Amino acid sequence: MLTAGVTGFATGFALILAIGAQNAFVLRQGLARQHVFWLCLLCATSDALLITAGVLGFGYIVTLYPSFPQIMAWGGAAFLFVYGALRFVAAAKGDYAMQVAGKSGSLWSVLATGAAFTWLNPHVYLDTLGLVGAVSTQFTDTGLKTAFGIGAVLASYVFFFSLGYGARLLTPIMQSASAWRRLDLLIGIVMWALAIKLLT
Question: Which of 32, 118, 144, 181 pairs as cysteine with 4 (C-beta 3.0–4.6 A)?
Answer without folding.
Answer: 144
